[in-house]
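A reminder before we start the practical. When you read a complex entry, don't treat the lines as separate problems. The point of joint prediction is that each chain is placed relative to the others, so the output describes one connected object in space. Small molecules and nucleic acid strands, if listed, are placed in the same frame. In the example below there are three entries. Take a minute to note the order of the lines before looking further.
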Amino acid sequence: MEMVTITIDGQQVQVPKTSTVLEAARSVGVNIPTLCYHPELRPEGACRVCVVEVKGARSLVASCIYPVNEGMEVKTNTPDVREARKTVVELLLANHPQECLSCQRNLNCELQTMASDLGIREIPYQGAKKNHPLDAGNPSLVRDQNKCILCGRCIRACSEVQGVHVYSFANRGFDTTVVPAFGQGLHEVACTFCGQCSSVCPTGAIVEKDDTAAVWKALSDPTKHVVVQTAPATRVALGEALGMKPGSIVTGKMVAALRHLGFDRVFDTDFTADLTILEEGNEFLERLQHGGVLPMITSCSPGWVNFIELKYPELLPHLSTAKSPQQMFGALVKTYYAEKAGIDAKDIVSVSIMPCTAKKAEAVREEMKSSGYQDVDYVLTTRELGRMIREAGIDFDGIEKEEYDAPLGIATGAGVIFGATGGVMEAALRTVAEVVTGKELPSIEFTSVRGLTGIKEAVIPVGDLKVKVAVAHTLANARIMLEKIKAGEADYHFIEVMACPGGCIGGGGQPISTCEGFRQKRIDAIYECDQGSALRKSHDNPAVKELYDTWLIKPLGEKSHHLLHTHYHPQNRI
Amino acid sequence: MKTVEDLKRMREQLQSQNRLRHSGGTEIIVGMGTCGIAAGARAVMSAVLEEIAKRKLEDVKVCQTGCIGMCEREVLLDVVRPNEPRVTYGRVTPADVSKIIAEHVVNGRIVEELVVGKIVE
Amino acid sequence: MDHIRAHVLICAGTGCVSSGAKKVEAAFREQLAQKGLDKEIKVVETGCHGFCEMGPLVIVYPEGVFYVRVQEEDVKDIVETHLFKGRIVERLLYKEPMTLEKVPNYSDISFYKKQMRMVLANCGHINPEIIEEYVAEGGYAALGKVLTEMTPESVVDEVKKSGLRGRGGGGFPTGMKWGFTRNAQGTKKYVVCNADEGDPGAFMDRSVLEGDPHRVIEGMAVCGYAIGADEGYIYVRAEYPLAIKRLKVAIQQAEEMGLLGDNIFGSGFNFHIKIKEGAGAFVCGEETALLQSIEGKRGMPRSRPPFPAISGLWGKPTNINNVETFANIPQIINKGGDWYASIGTEKSKGTKVFALTGRINHTGLAEVPMGITMREIIYDIGGGIQNGKKFKAVQIGGPSGGCLPEEMLDLSVDYDSLIQAGAMMGSGGLVVMDETTCMVDVAKFFLNFTQSESCGKCTPCREGTKRMLEILTRITEGQGQEGDIEKLEKLAKNIKATALCGLGQTAPNPVLSTLRYFRHEYEAHIKEKRCPAGACAKLAAYNITEACKGCGLCKKVCPVEAISGEVKGLHVIDQAVCIKCGACMAKCPFKAITKG
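Here is the predicted structure of the whole assembly.
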């Protein structure tokens, strides 16, 4: 790589020629404050907080986007620079509701941190403020434009990462806003509710819809039997919401904390992840052997399901009919579990802890009532669970680990890797290969489908057949896959798609991180969980076996069809 | 248009079109006062225009003027060649026009027998 | 064949058309036909003369007589008296405002006398919708010359030698810009013409496009050859329908004649031009925002570098110049860079077109050599201040420019002197203000413009100009506070230092320049709650003087019953009730009510 030498605050550094001033500064430990910058998004240089002095430049320059060049002299901490940054933040605050204490992002807000770091003690400008109505018309996300600082990160995440293009700037000058098409609510436009916008929002302008009040209420209701399931990706991220490092594995602590909160049973979505493998794996074999629609595409990610329903309805037959693990779980809790535990399903409140905002919307879909009730009553994101734990005063650091309840808390390593991109594919391959050949696999680690590459491909021998698979994460990559299918260029048998970057570990409901490499750290933790599991293949899950033996009878059977599979329909929103 | 020569040729052809709007060139001034018109200035004017058209003269402007106080000598017609004195012809008839143009305007030879005055500006 | 002895030029620029030029033209055609003069007199529709307030304008050649404010009913007179009998119609001549002298000849009118019309040479002189008229004036010779006699490098060098600087505002050396794009990596390159003229009151680019579109097209084609581009875009605001129409006609005629298209003059050089209509956002005049807009995106500037010369339209090397810049190119090629460089000052070469507006006798377009003084423009060309009022300031450079006071009138008008004085060349808007103009109000006006036209992308421009505007508003309303001037200065300094694009960086200029030269007016508003110019309605106090005869008319007309007094006695205005509407002052037959 071609290097250049530049001087930052008197310190000579060698950096790649393609670096920005910000990257160069950070590489030598000089921290320049930023707001509109996000390490995973294309820099815009819009907020002007990261300005620095460059010798010879006519004005201050935005370091996040300004390229380095040989011999450049940069000063990041001069009186002019400090005054300029402070002025920019004062201006943002002058047009910001001063509601920090009651804001969902209190103590987790970049604007708040910035004001504190820059030592802002008064806001010298008083005048007009934004005044927009709240957009709370959907089950997943709440947008408060009045808290928006117009950094454009949501726009970039939605268009660059997800390729969905829900948001754009509208109007000019002081009236500039970020809006969905025609200023409509998110529920009226082609939003997938993936929540990536809420993950990159530096303030409380886009947050998950908070459902904790309803859950607190259920927990305190003695007539209700409140059960909870925890998605695979939550155990490697919840720690971050409670002050731990990215990649901390907190499975046992989370279970214990949930019991402390008052949940009657603490179960694991990993169980229905294993079940999904058996249903979806058999569906795949069925399609393979009987000329069904191929490639078959996974359907666990509700953001992804919304995407294909919205944008490529003609390709819906490719989608596996298997419900997502959350919804399989919901359906079983109010039928199989209710029967087994001898509890009337109407008295069961089914809560799920998800890394995902789209799961909130999935739970209220019309189709998701196969138990006769709404299968999953409340969906909380990892972030909301973090807040409940803090509210309850639980010492998360000190709490002793506990185990999930049986039987729906019993799971294999194949279930837990659902949380990372490529995990569903790997889990399926572990099972399909053994079911088809009847022989035990020599190695169960399919590393070719792991990792953060946007689209991964592999050819896996399964008996006589070479199964061609592909894995895509982010909706932008999903779009590439679908276009390939439409063009007749996708000779894959099986495709895994996850809406969010990195899979569920990077879900829109996960703790917000701008920390470099946080996705990989969470992914590493997921595979560590897998490796630490006694059982690592879904078809080895004894509780799943029992479920089939005593109740479901067989994969794709009558009961499965009714409870564990669903159908999709085109959504018509612009 | 295929070549730069085509462009040059075209420009040369067209230039006369706009010449009226630039200064320079020979001026023919016809007296169009009441006296002039009564003496047949309009017919002289038409003859001038016809003659110019016939000879395809490009750098000639035809102007009019009012009464200059020599009514009995009307129709008066002046010719001004660049950097030459203004020559006034009197009692000009349409029949004289072709001679004045051929001799004076084109070849610079003053038609002395019709001259009533010269003004050096 | 008939000989055409006279041309009647009728201005068909936007200004004259709106004051009735089309009807005048029809009347001429009818009258000439009636008199049998239509074979010897030609009626020519031209572009703008830049003297729109005097329109419709008619010029009769060969005499070059200039008739102003010609109406349909005047045509008969011109035809009978002038065209038939050769006598000037005195009553339609232009009258000098200072001397009241009538001036028959176009070139003798003081408005035109001191001008050096090079870019505007053909404007008002040829029919812009007939390519032959442009060719007859030497059009496309420059394109022919570069394609057959010059290498692209030597074209760039010639432009460098001319010293031409961008006429759109920034004043960046044009030749250098061309050189950057020429040397940029890539085979596909673009030429873009910025015709998104947005400064309030400025219309020089529109005039050039309406009056001489081929000049711009030729300049772009020369640029295409120089930088190695085969495609050009003209980004023009949709509010300029006539300019768009004439451009379309011009492009089509040039294509038909082989002056645009493939293999021009058999040289192997291809050049095509497309028109992109913009919606007229001010910010789209900023080059990176303009490119975004051509690409179909929201017009928002992006950070530079990379500059468009390296990565412009669709990521390809792109050279952007404005209309006036391109219009300068043909003459530079034809007459040489050295010739061009002989006009103007050391660092500002050639001429600049200004749009004169405000409280000045001659409003309109004036093309002057660089280095002329502001005084010459305002007094010699502009004919001085209206109604004999006193000059107070001139605002130059549009919303990004600054206000210069009387003591700066002898300033040389060139890029660098203007910047030093706290203003800028901008695209050439020149607003003259007299003693009745409040400078705080002027700053407020421009801030209001930049704030509402801010693209909203960067914080300092979006939020900062709003706060400045709020402070200015409260000052003009008598609510100014101690410390407001300091706040304005601090905001201005930081907006200049941190805004993303040139528009934001220059937005505080009107405030800074008025603070620099007219600080006392700000102080009077804040400390004494007084507007020295008497322009700020909320600060105006109406008072009744001893001249009051007690007629009671003011009392009757006052809508809020703020005036009291006995018949034949001195009346008094209750300042607390008065809403400063001014009705009493207008009504008083004895001029007994003053405003101050």
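Discuss with your neighbour: Residues 269-289 of chain A form the longest helix (21 residues). What might explain this?
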